User: Fold this.
Amino acid sequence: MQDAVLKIQRLGAPPEGFEDGGCPEDDVFPSDEILDLWDEYQDAVVAIRQPITLEEAEVLIKCCPTDRMAGVEWSLLHCIESYISNRDLQDKPGELEKYKNLIKKCNSDMMKGMLLERLESYLSQYH
Assistant:
């Protein structure tokens, strides 16, 4: 397993309050500790080599941000999606169910919705 994935596993889901890179709604700037955690999470996500394995996808799906993170959520989403190729979805029927089951394990309603929406969009175009 990649070190970057293990680091995300140790960090867990990042703290909320970074929607679009701004301050939390109560206008109190996050503490240095929270900012450091966010930076560590961001550094780990961009260090992930794609495609990832199913085992790595299972770790990442449980550590998703529950709030927007100035685009970091999209980088993580692309990592998770890299586990399964379009060819697998087309040629291996069992892989589609495996991927749907993976998405169901997501800790973040926001990320789960994004992953499902993108899968449905793909399926409507190619199936």
About this structure: The CA atoms of residues 13 and 63 lie 4 Å apart. The chain has seven helices and no strands. The two ends are 33 Å apart (CA to CA). The helical segments are 3-11, 32-47, 54-60, 72-82, 86-91, 93-104, 109-126.
